[in-house]
Design goal:
By secondary structure, the protein is mostly helical. The protein contains twelve helices and no strands. The protein has one domain. Keywords: Membrane, Transmembrane, Transmembrane helix, Transport. Pfam families: PHO4. One of its GO terms (cellular component) is membrane. Its main location: membrane.
Length: about 325
């Protein structure tokens, strides 16, 4: 299917809209802890997070974008109709969970939409199983790793702060939390923005506009990072409230541990090209620091509701993506 220039630009615009909504939806992941501990006011926190979201392309390679572009659905299956349906599925789920204040995964919404549209086109033969298995495994591993790292960091912080007064600990980690929030935002921008890069690049490839084989043009990198940063600037305050205070109450030291544990997990995923969920990662880390204090410090009913949303995200977005593909086919 060859698109006219206006339709091609329109489809790229929809992809960038998803990227903007990704930043809006996932701003909470980057700033919830630093806002809930009152280290930064919300308006400054989103500026801090957006800046590091944007510069992430200068730190990480484009491994995640390559995975999304060629490692979820067979490249020859992806055409403009599949991409449109995938984006509709992802945007629908993002907007729904944002309105409800549920911290679901934008990443898995996009992957679900892509899988649904690909399956609607040719069946299960569209799936690149190695990439999907790696992605599904990350749904369970990323929060577990974030939780484990946060627990270890809580122990290290407690050991290194034995001679400090509670006020001294608070003052030290109010400063350090600025660094941990920056690192987490950097990891978030390096993973999540790349998903849209992969979608736009494979669209251009399907139109024969990428010369020299599949790659990610630099203008695509810049526009995707900018769209995500602008979305982060807009903030997702409903989800900030859920992440920052409903799961457990955080001190600056605990916020530092949660963000650092999450950042390490995201850095590793970026290096290995695994499209993980920043939402899953930071939620696991927040639960970890809460549980380190005492198990009753975690509101397990809230955490359980979040896990249910994680489970539903991929199939729900896949159903909307498949339905959109079939409906769109009636007009093509």
């Amino acid at each position: 299917m060859t698109l006219s220039l206006p339709l091609l630009i329109g489809l790229i615009g929809i992809a960038l809209l998803f990227d903007f909504l990704n930043g809006l939806h996932d701003a909470a992941n980057s700033i919830a802890t630093v806002v809930s501990t009152r280290v930064l006011k919300p308006q400054y926190a989103v500026l801090w997070a957006a800046f590091f979201n944007f510069i992430a392309f200068a730190v990480f390679g484009l491994h995640v974008a390559q995975t999304i572009g060629t490692g979820i659905v067979q490249a020859q299956v992806i055409d403009p109709q599949v991409i449109f349906a995938a984006l509709v599925g992802a945007i629908f789920w993002n907007v729904t969970t944002w309105i409800l204040g549920i911290p679901s995964s934008s990443s898995h919404a996009l992957i679900g939409g892509l899988l649904g549209a690909g399956i609607a086109k040719i069946g299960f033969g569209a799936i690149v199983w190695s990439g999907v298995i790696k992605t599904v495994a990350a749904i369970f591993l990323s929060p577990a790793i974030g939780l484990g790292l946060a627990l270890v960091l809580v122990l290290l912080v407690a050991w290194t702060s034995l001679r400090l007064t509670p006020l001294g600990v608070d003052k030290r980690f109010r400063k350090l939390q600025l660094i941990s929030a920056a690192l987490y935002s950097l990891g978030h921008g390096g993973n999540d923005a790349q998903k849209t890069m992969g979608i736009i690049a494979v669209l251009l490839y399907s139109q024969g506009l990428l010369h020299g084989g599949f790659h990610i043009p630099f203008w695509v990198v810049l526009t995707c990072q900018a769209a995500m940063a602008l979305g982060t600037l807009s903030g997702g305050w409903r989800i900030v409230h859920t992440m920052g205070s409903k799961i457990t109450r955080l001190t600056p030291a605990q916020g530092f541990c949660a963000e650092t544990g999450g950042a390490i997990t995201l850095f590793a995923a970026n290096f290995w090209g695994i499209p993980v969920s920043s939402t899953h990662t930071i939620t696991g880390a927040i639960v970890g620091v809460g549980a380190a204090r005492r198990l009753s410090a975690v509101r397990w009913n809230v955490a359980t509701n979040i896990i249910v949303a994680w489970t539903v995200t991929l199939p729900a977005a896949a159903l909307v993506g498949a339905g959109t593909y079939l409906v769109a086919g009636l007009f093509v």
